[in-house]
Amino acid sequence: MDFSGRFSGLRILKEGLTGNKGWGPHWKDATPKEAYDVVIIGGGGHGLSTAYYLAKNHGIRNVAVLEKGYLGGGNVGRNTTIVRANYMMPGNTEFYSHSLKLWEGLEQDLNYNAMLSQRGQISLFHSDGQRDGAIRQGNAMINQGDDAELLSVGDLKKLVPFLDYKQARYPIYGAILQRRAGTARHDAVAWGFARGASERGVDLIQNCEVTGIDIEGGRVTGVQTTRGAIKAGKVAIIVAGRSSKVAAMAGMRLPIESHVLQAFVSEGLKPCIDHVISFGMGHFYISQSDKGGLVFGGDLDFYASYAARGNLPTVEHVMEAGMTLMPAIGKARVLRSWGGIMDMSPDGSPIIDKTHIDGLFIDCGWCYGGFKAVPGSGHVMAHLMATGEHHAAATKFRLDRFRTGQNLMDEEGTGSQHNLH
Fold it and tell me: 330: which DSSP letter?
């Protein structure tokens, strides 16, 4: 069976006229082999992109991606689909700039429609202090080589007239606009990377839960799974909110906690929101999907959990913030909600590094930034696994920063910022 057929406008037209009967599976549902050069634990966006770039950029194709459920069934399919590079702190800003550039060429690279829509993100501010912080952030973005524009209230009223500009409690002072930011179709991103990896010889193995990590003499030798033992020269743990549980199989205690982040979608509406909009006085963000649903979310539930669902107080908080920002959405009915399990690091920044066990690698701690990091994470993780050296865009994501305190990054500014003192 052919798994490598390329998409083209002519082929799509032909299939549309002939009942779409010529399409085959997008990837091979592989059976585990006894041994691989590389085993990747986790079949989400980051794991699949790592496998893809290992094969494409480094010629490492004897790779298995092990997923305990189905590909793309975790956080990559449970998010608000936002893509952006409007970070400020050294370390994060270089990485997300690198990831956004990969996003912009991703569909051509994968030959797959990830439905990237660079509709722009508007980040509102509501006080003089927030304006100063936003200007500083915008300058950092421009210095990094990315785009940022300072918008006045007059500019905003032309772009997004439906916001509540008359509220006294949270007056809108302006915003920072990043036009290259936007959204992508989350499941299409996972499918595109899965297809690309499979085309290059990677085995994608579903319904294969890892139950143990084999270590001999300080070196990883393979994994134990519900489908038997698999030997491996290198193993990568890329399992998002389950990172602590999987790392514990190797005797590691990671400096992360797992929390639930809820998201919501409304019934389908006619096009009304052209951008991604972030509320500066309440953790709320919203965009409109291609199907017409309003996709929005807020803050964490703030208790540790592995349940992919949230609690009602957070639902209430998100709805209140949405109504404060744009009362016009009040009559829209919420269609469904879901929760993603976020692996939160102490400084709000990810971990991409080798571990103290030879051949064992870790990619975790993405906090709120997991989806927008998918291509960048896989690209730099593959570089690290293939060369043993950190990619230039990910030199600050070392695990030992939590042991030494050196180069800690605090993107939210809620703790000490060593590199600003």
Answer: G
Q: Of 151, 150, 156, which is closest to residue 136 (Cα–Cα)? A: 150
* Of 187, 238, 186, the residue nearest 82 (C-alpha): 186
**Alpha-carbon distance 367 to 257, whole Å?**
10
What's 240's DSSP letter? G
* DSSP code per residue over 321-355: HHHHH-GGGGGSPEEEEEEEEEEE-TTS--EEEE-
For residue 2, the tally of other CB atoms under 10 A from its CB is 8
- Provide mean pLDDT across the span 358-375: 96
Q: Please, what are the domains in the chain?
A: 28-81+186-254+347-420 (3.50.50.60), 117-181+257-344 (3.30.9.10)
User: CB within 8 A of 248, min separation 6: which ones?
Assistant: none
Which residue's entry shows tokens 């992109």?
49
pLDDT tens profile 313-355: 999 999 999 999 999 999 999 999 999 999 999 888 999 999 9
Distance CA 58, CA 52 (A): 10
- pTM here is 0.94
